[in-house]
Amino acid sequence: MVHGCAPQENSVLAKLKDFAVVCIQSSGALSDRDLSTLCETITGLKPDFWEETEPGTFLAFFLVTRGGRTKSLKLSAAVGSLRKQGSGFAGVGVAKTVGELVTEANWHGKILTCPFGDAVNQAMKLAREAAQKETRA
Questions:
Q1: Domain 13-136 has CATH 3.10.310.30
Q2: Model confidence, pTM
Q3: SS3 assignment, position 13
Q4: Which of 19, 37, 48, 58 qualifies as a cystine partner to 24, CB 3.0-4.6 A?
Q5: What DSSP string describes 62-130?
Q6: Which long-range contacts (CB under 8 A, 24 or more apart) does 29-33 make?
Q7: Which of 122, 113, 91, 135 is nearest to 20 (CA)?
Q8: Tens digits of per-residue pLDDT, 93-126?
Q9: What is the mean pLDDT of the chain?
Q10: Inter-axis angle of helices 68-85 and 32-44, to 10 degrees?
Q11: In contact, 136 and 40? CB cutoff 8 Å
Q12: What are the backbone dihedrals phi and psi of residue 60, each rounded to the nearest 5 degrees, phi first?
């Protein structure tokens, strides 16, 4: 039994925070090598949270207060350069949005679940459209 008002380690707090969101959408299947390259590219920019939400759709979240706008631009540019380097990324679309999202974090500020809100939906829509455009090009 826990006494007093001290927060428990596994306590979760839902909060609204400003994020730069980068959505990377592949119109086709990525090879294991290309998938590994993409994951390394994402993790190299140290997002505050990221995940593959469905096959070929990646979301990376950068807190605006921690230089998120700059990091999100760097990720978008890095994925764009991958697209130029080889045909494995030819059908990849990238979109960036900024907005207030709901997120769950522990008492130490570590984000525990994928943030959600309008900025995520908009980024996914724009990335899907960009991937379709790249596929037609």
A1: no
A2: 0.86
A3: strand
A4: 58
A5: EEGGGTHHHHHHHHHHHHHHHHHH-GGGTTEEEEEEEEEEEEEE-TT--B-S--BSHHHHHHHHHHHHH
A6: 29/55, 29/56, 30/56, 30/88, 30/89, 31/88, 33/88
A7: 122
A8: 999 999 999 999 888 888 999 999 999 999 999 9
A9: 87
A10: 160
A11: no
A12: -125, 135
Give dist(CA 108, CA 2) in Å, integer: 19
132 CB neighbour count, 10 Å cutoff: 14
Tokens standing for residue 44: 């190299």
Q: What is the CA radius of gyration of the chain?
A: 17
* Tens-place pLDDT, residues 28-59: 888 899 999 999 999 999 999 999 998 889 99
133's enclosing H/E stretch is helix 118-136
